[in-house]
Request: fold
Amino acid sequence: MLTCILIGFLVAFIFQNLLGVFQILFYVFVLLIVADILLLFVSKGRIEGKRELPDKLSNGDENPIPINISNTYLFTATIKIIDELPFQFQKRDFGLESNLKSGAAKFYNYHIRPTERGSYSFGSLNIFASSPLGLLARRFQFDQAAEIPVYPSFLQLRKYDLIAFSNRLFEYGLKKIRRIGHTMEFEQIKDYVIGDDIRNINWKATAKRNQLMVNQYQDEKSQPIYSVIDKGRVMKMPFNGLKLLDYAINATLVISNIAIKKNDKAGMFAFSNAIQNRVVADRRSSQMNLILETLYNLDTNFVESDFSRLYIDIKRNLNQRSLLLLYTNFETLDALHRQLPYLQAISKNHLLVVIFFENTELQDFASKPPKNTHQIFEQTIAEKFIYEKKRIVNELRKYGIQTILTKPEDLTINTINKYLEIKARGLI
Reply:
């Protein structure tokens, strides 16, 4: 009994002392909280921040977003940056953390890759600052509510605008093609000088003037180059987050710019069950802006594309022989055969290039070693579809129709190569 009483007194004594320790710790904690409040909210210093958004974003590309932050506190602040990204990115774990010394400024840069055209809404730029005590954080908000349009890949346009007219073609997969033919138009008759091609001597003019005269020719310029974009359901398929339609749109923007720089006339139109988004081929100064705005508003639908309507429209509206770059997709030979009569009819009066896509996901799947019978069966089907694409190429070439079978990511390079090849061979 005495032992129990002694134990009770001992526990009470310890509890009273612990309670005193807890009270002291609590008061210290409160004092630290107050000190942190004074440092973060009462002192004159603060965090300044600015997010620099561009006028527009480039679809399918890594777009840099710069953030500038400065610290006017008298202490080194621990900061966490949370930018409220547009909902299209579905990113909820975005955050940048760093330490920023007193009086210092720092530049941050992160990248976003949009995969859809349209308007993107940014929220606030939130910066949470903590003192060296690290008990509290103060939030600073900047740059609230910003709307940014996402346009077809103008970054890709700038890239190829530089290299297509330089000597660095091989670095980017572009081929340097020797010019083996000329499409020439008569310019004038002039006096013969040493070095002129004697095959161009004009004997009738020579007889009249009693001296050698030659015909002078110049390369025929301003050929119409049309990008024809299938916006039916076959172009809805995504690869690497980007629809086939958007790959075609980005390539159209680049090839139109190069065609104009090469003194050709660039135009475009899209089709599914109707012909829409038409831009008549021209090379005026405002042409590229008109094409860009038209491509920005172009989207797929879920109907089957009507190639007969495409043929009728081309026959009615394109009187001059033109280069037609047709962006579409065929998965089977049967799908091609249904449209082949219309493609043949179009190619009689125009130089038609049918551009369609490899299924890179099927190729990746077919290249992996199978682990069981079921995977062997699936790979056999995948290889059948891959072989079917090659048969489509051969079938089109059999009827004299130019083709490009390309990976989606290589579409722009391969289209430029084909255009330069056609120009070099004088096919148009």
In short: DSSP finds ten helices and 20 strands in the chain. Confidence is low (pLDDT under 50) at residues 167-172. The radius of gyration is 34 Å. The longest strand covers residues 63-71.
